[in-house]
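Q: Could you fold this chain for me?
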Amino acid sequence: METVLKAWTGFLASGVEGVAGLIIALGALQAAVNALILFLIPKRRAGSMQERQTEYIRLQLGRWLALALEFELGADILRTAIAPTWAEIGQLAAIATIRTFLNYFLQKEIDRAAQIQFRPETPSPLHQFKQRESEMKNVPGNVLH
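A: Sure. Below is the predicted structure, expressed as structure tokens.
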């Protein structure tokens, strides 16, 4: 029975790590798409607006990374339940400590940047792209009709 529980806990920990990897991949994809859109939108806006949008993308990615670190920490906690030796428990404790510190400082950076740079009225690059696209459709003689 104990062997079965250890096996299932190991599978569960691996699943939680898989979720963390998926969160990182999707967060990075979202950031990459938003950054690409930001590059492709005509540069008629003020430089500070682009900096705010870049910061917004960075904050979004940072939040996804922080969430993924929480999942990784959860997987580490599950693994401590099945670690048979003190050496393995010590390695997991070191990894968990590093991840906790990373998450703490990442969250501090996110909070600081959100207070300084981000304002709720800053639209996302995707929203701006869609708004620009709809404006272009209303221009007479435009082939996007």
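A (continued): Helices lie at 2-40, 47-82, 86-116, 125-137.
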